[in-house]
Every structure is written in structure tokens, then in C-alpha cells.
Fold this sequence. Notes:
With 133 residues, the chain is α+β, with helices and mostly antiparallel strands. The chain has one domain (3-132): Aminopeptidase (3-Layer(aba) Sandwich), CATH 3.40.630. The protein has three helices and seven strands. The protein has a seven-stranded mixed β-sheet. Strand 2 and strand 3 (48-57) form a beta hairpin. The longest helix is centred in the middle third of the chain and has 15 residues, at 77-91. It is globular. The mean pLDDT is 91.
Amino acid sequence: MDYAIRQTEFRKIEHFATSAGRERVIIFNPAGAVWFAAFITNQSDAIPIGCGCCVIEGQKALFRGIYVEKPYRRKGVFRALFAEQLKYCKAHGVKEMTANCTPLSLPEFLAKGFTKEGYYKNNKNITVVRCEI
Length: 133
């Protein structure tokens, strides 16, 4: 399966909100969000299969809503989305990044050098992670 990661608009990925919500991934469009999506490239229509956004405020970024549809998991899509977000943040002068991770995404963030900071609103299913560049 071939796919490409591109910056996109929220309206092209907002349909993920329902399925992502079932897995405790919240998809919404916060002010200042920069969205990325993975699109299958061997189809005539650009169909997104995953998404994620970052919100940059000064030298800090918050990663939000990184989600990949179930049939496309374990194929490197999450890593590719994450790498594109990291690249974008570094190019825009970000020095500190945070994210709220589900058990599924936590290992990827830890592998990229993020450290655990605690739990989001005392919810043991959502781990807050942080990384300085």
C-alpha cells in the first residue's frame, strides 16, 4: 500500500471524529491547528486513512488527534504522520512538545525521546508526555 503524508484541512479528516472517539482519541479543530493526513496514493480520489495535528504557541507545540484507521495500522502510517509533525515543529522553531497519549500511541512517543509527565486529569488511560528539542 502506498500512501503520502500531506498538510491538509480539518474538513478533510473530521469524519474520523466518531471512530477515533471510540478509542479515546479526540478529533476536533483547536485554534491554530496544523493538520496532516495520510492519503492512499494509488486511488483516483485522495482518501485519508489517518490524521494528526499540532498546535504551536511560541516555542511550544501540542500534538493532538493522531489517529490511523484500523485496517491501516501496523503499516508505518502513525510513524510517518508523527515524523512529519516533528519535522514541521522543528522547522517552525518549536523547543518543547507535549502530547496526551493513549496506550496505543504511548510507545511511539517514548521511542522518540518523550518522557512521561503524569496522567491527563487523573485518567490512567491518557498519559501526558513531554520532550525538549
